[in-house]
Amino acid sequence: xxxxxxxxxxxxxxxxxxxxxxxxxxxxxxxxxxxxxxxxxxxxxxxxxxxxxxxxxxxxxxxxxxxxxxxxxxxxxxxxxxxxxxxxxxxxxxxxxxxxxxxxxxxxxxxxxxxxxxxxxxxxxxxxxxxxxxxxxxxxxxxxxxxxxxxxxxxxxxxxxxxxxxxxxxxxxxxxxxxxxxxxxxxxxxxxxxxxxxxxxxxxxxxxxxxxxxxxxxxxxxxxxxxxxxxxxxxxxxxxxxxxxxxxxxxxxxxxxxxxxxxxxxxxxxxxxxxxxxxxxxxxxxxxxxxxxxxxxxxxxxxxxxxxxxxxxx
Length: 314
What we know:
single chain, alpha/beta, Rossmann fold, 4-stranded parallel β-sheet, 9 strands, 14% strand, globular
């Protein structure tokens, strides 16, 4: 692996290899009082975030530190970006300072691909390579989120192949949904998108999944369900009548939880909007695996850094 920009770049063998590495790292650190491995000692990892984040940024920072990398956080609000510096200049400045890996979140779809192209062009001149990890670009993709979701589903279900996974809610604005559809289908799952027509993107019929508008009809046949955050900050116009009506039609409440097979895991990429897309009682139930996702996120991101920076076989 040179960069991790899109789930589309991962075949089943590569994705499974990343999940297996994450699982081994989790087992290695289990029960350790000091969770520190020397794997990336001497490497420098930079998180470059143009959007706010808690889970992704912090878990990448922890992942780097647990593998002994020097981890540096850059926020657009506190950098030269606020003075007008371009994305190209910022990314190349960071690599010129010695960054081995840049983990980037940006509101523009395709931004990570553009930065990776600049880094590859610069590497041809300088001979020094900087890897780029897409930590979410606009409404495009979020590959490490899909990987940690797959790790959680594998832990809970034993296997992903042959399972039916529902993804519910604001698919239109969700980079998480796009990456999960690609990855879960690559790993052999059947994916069902459940959303109102107004929250489905153009071209969704070409995705490797099935589309439904009735949550109640789909729940009994699902092995797991992933609820999506309604991304009001990306909405400019009326996509549904009201928050209450959205919750009635597409929120996962206790009655709907009872329609799922017993013990079916409930996932959510966070942050959760309780009472709208998921009821508090469901979010706090034994079915909810949100914190398991967060824990797996650290190990999955350790695995990604390992494969990119430690020369692990593809």
